[in-house]
Amino acid sequence: MENLKKQMNFLIEIDKLKNVFRQTLISDKSRNENDAEHSWHMAMYAVILEKYAPKGTDILKVIKMALIHDIIEIYAGDTFLYDEELTKSKEKREKEAAKKIYSILPDKQGKEIKALWEEFEEKQTKEAIFCATIDRIQPIILNYLTQGGTWKKHNVKKDMVLKKGYLIFEKADERLKQYVLEIIEESVKLGYLLP
């Protein structure tokens, strides 16, 4: 019962992820996306785009990574991808948050989930690379669908998107890469993204 209580406390605590809002607008432009929605959407990207993952990728592990990768933001807050100043303290804030949030779980399970988050952050395994790739693709698609939403608000330029999305362009399936490049080029052409 003690482990179950800890697990339930964790599940109750992570409900707070619904209150962590990102810069990205949802596709109808009515409001900003929250971290829980983003994580769910990434998990769906993993399911639907599984055939574009590197051969031998454990998709269940990618789905788990997608669902847990932003839980630390309950305490660390969301760091906007293009906020260079806030990015300086991101790693420290997130490590402290990971220690706090995953310690709510029973010890063994907390260590397993934390290790999965660390693997995602290190971006070295096939699963972490694929998960990080879809983590970059998802907001690109939402910015395109919102006619540049966040990009316009923060004067984001094409080279910034390409730099931050380097995993897409260096390691992603060629078809995914081509699709994303077309979206970016179309966004520049339509004035959603600065050249």
Structure description:
With 195 residues, this protein is mainly alpha-helical. The chain has a single domain, classed as Hypothetical protein af1432, CATH 1.10.3210.10. Helix content is 65%, strand content 4%. It is built from twelve helices and two strands; from the N terminus they run αββααααααααααα. It has a two-stranded antiparallel ribbon. Helix 2 packs across helix 8, helix 3 packs across helix 8 and helix 6 (90-102) runs antiparallel to helix 7 (107-122). The chain is globular and about 60 Å long.
Features:
single chain; 195 residues; mainly alpha; Hypothetical protein af1432; two-stranded antiparallel sheet; 65% helix
Task: Please trace the helix and strand order, writing H or E for each element.
Answer: HEEHHHHHHHHHHH
Extended strand count: 2
Query: What fold name goes in the CATH topology slot?
Result: Hypothetical protein af1432
What fraction of the residues are assigned to beta strands by DSSP?
Answer: under 5%
Large-scale geometry: globular
**Quick check: average pLDDT?**
95
Number of domains: 1
Q: What is the level 1 CATH name?
A: Mainly Alpha
Secondary-structure content class = mainly alpha
Radius of gyration from CA coordinates: 17 Å
Helical content stands at 55-70%
Report the CATH superfamily.
Hypothetical protein af1432
Largest sheet: 2 strands, antiparallel
